[in-house]
Amino acid sequence: MAEEVDYESEDEKTTTTTTKKTGGGSAMHSANFKDFVLRPELLNAITECGFETPSQVQQECIPVAMHGSDIICQARSGMGKTAVFVLATLHLMDLEKENQCQVLVLCHARELAYQISKEYKRFSKYMRPDICEVFIGGIPLKQNIETLAARVPPVIVGTPGRVLDLATQKKLDLSKVSMFVIDECDRVLGGETRNGVETFDMRSEVQKVFAMLPLEKQVMMYSATLPPSIRSTLKKFCRDANPKEVFVDDTQTLKLTGLLQYMREVEEKEKSAILSDIIDNYEFNQVVIFVSNFKRCQVLSNLMNEAGFPSNFIHGKMKQEERIKRFDAFKSGEFRILLATDLLGRGIDIENVNLVINYDFPSSDDQYLHRVARAGRFDTKGLAISFISTPEDKEILAKVQSRFDVSIPVLPAEVIDYNLYKN
Hints:
Blueprint: E1 18-20, H1 40-48, H2 56-67, E2 71-74, H3 81-92, E3 103-106, H4 110-123, E4 132-135, H5 141-150, E5 155-158, H6 160-168, E6 179-183, H7 185-189, E7 192-194, E8 197-199, H8 201-211, E9 218-223, H9 228-235, E10 244-247, E11 259-265, H10 271-281, E12 286-290, H11 294-306, E13 312-314, H12 320-331, E14 337-340, E15 353-358, H13 365-372, E16 382-388, H14 391-403
Parallel strand pairs: 2-9, 2-10, 3-5, 3-6, 4-5, 6-9, 11-16, 12-14, 12-15, 13-14, 15-16
Antiparallel strand pairs: 1-10, 7-8
Helix pairs in contact: 2-3, 3-4, 6-8, 13-14
C-alpha cells in the first residue's frame, strides 16, 4: 500500500484565466453565492461563514458541477477549489438515502483529508450533523470498520490506501457512489520519485478503487498544478468524453498576486542564524518554515526553541494523532511558528499564515508553488523568503522564474514594511 506522503525526501486572484467550456453546462458569472440557487441550508451556512462573492474558480466551476458534468480544474492555491466540490456535492446529494456512500473524496495526505471533512461539516451545518467521515491510514482499521458497521455516511473523505483496504475487505460498499472527487489530483495520480525511482503506487490504488465504483457517476478533479503530461491520465477517469476543463491558463504561468517573493543566497552553516534574525526582526501573524526532511525539522525546531522562539514541528514520521493535534493547534493559533516538511506543502489552508520561509529550497518548481501559496492566499497578502545554498537550488530557482514568469529579487538588507504583506 502506498504511503500517504509519510515519506520525506532526503535530498490571486488570478490575473488571467483560460477556460475550456466543454462537457455540458456553461459557466455562469455570479456576483453573489445566492445566484447559484443552492439549497437554502447551504446558503445559510455560506452567509454565516461570511462569504459573499465567489472567486473566479467558483464562478466557473460551481454551476457546471451542479449541472452534473465532469470537471478537471487547475487554479491557484487559496482560490476556494475545496468549496467548489463541497458545495456542489452537498447540493446534489439525496438526503433521503440512508446508510450509503454517495460522495467519495480521495486525497494524498491525511491532514488534507481532515481539512476537507471540516469544510463538509461547516457547510452542512443546517443539513444534518453526521454527513461526513474520514478514513485514513494511521488510524486503526478496526476503528473504521466499527464506524461503518454503525452507519455509512453519505460523504467519505479518505486516502486511497485506506479506502481500498475497507472496500477490498467488503466493509465499505462503493456501488452507490454518484460523485467521485480527487483533490490534488496530479499528486494522487502522478508518479512519485523515491530514492531515484519513479513509482505510481497511489495511482494503482485509485485505479482499484475506481473499478469498484458504478459506471454512471460524476467525476471531479482539482489541483493547483496540472502539468500537460498528467492531463490525458485524468481524462481516463472521467465519464464524459470531453469533461469541463478549467485552467488558470494554458502556459502554466501562475500569477501569485499579493505575494511578495524574495531569495537570499546563504551558506548552509549560516542558515539557522539568518533564520533567527528574520524571525526576530520581521512581523508576521504565523509562519511556516519548510525543510527537506523530518530530521532537520525536529533539530531546527529544537534550536529555535532554545533561541527563545517558541515553535513546533510536523512531519510524516509522526504518529497520526500527534500530527493532527499539532496541526489543529497551529491552525487555532496556539503557536505562531511551525517547522514542516512537504507534508504541509499541498492543499493545507491556514488562514493566518502570511510568511513562508524555504529554509531548504524545494526540489521542484511545482513544489515551490505549493509551498509559497501557503501565504498570501485568495484576496490576501503574504511574504515568501527562500534560502539558496546549492547549485541545485539555483537550477530550481531558474525554473521557477522561467515557468512562472517572475523575477525573484534578493532580500533587501532593510526589513520589509509589514504593511506590504499584512493580511
